Amino acid sequence: MKYLKIGGTWILTLLLAVVMVGPGAQKFTSPTWERMFRTWGYPDGFYLVIGAIEVVGGVGLLIPRVASYCAITLSMVMLGAAATQVLRGGRNGVGEIVFASLLAALGWIRWRDRWRIKTSSPPQTTM
What we know:
Blueprint: H1 2-29, H2 31-39, H3 46-60, H4 64-89, H5 94-119
Helix pairs in contact: 1-2, 1-3, 1-5, 3-4, 4-5
């Protein structure tokens, strides 16, 4: 059961990392993103900031020590994307909310694992 949880967590992590890094990198290479962000009313260059957060955060998901922070940050970015879709994009933002929820769940799992590791170490004895 333990290995199933660990394997499931890593599969979720890898999938979310790919989902975040791919579109994040596209923000640097595709002129479509610049037009979309301008249409939505964001300042010039904001798409590059979001792209950098998505790429760095996506890679950070693969590093257990910082994965919880990256997951929560990316979850906030995806909630912003959902709000943008609802308010400016003419869509319902459900896909973005699903990704935000998965990222928040991963953040919680990684945060819980951090505390479990810290509290499970044997007490130190001094002589």
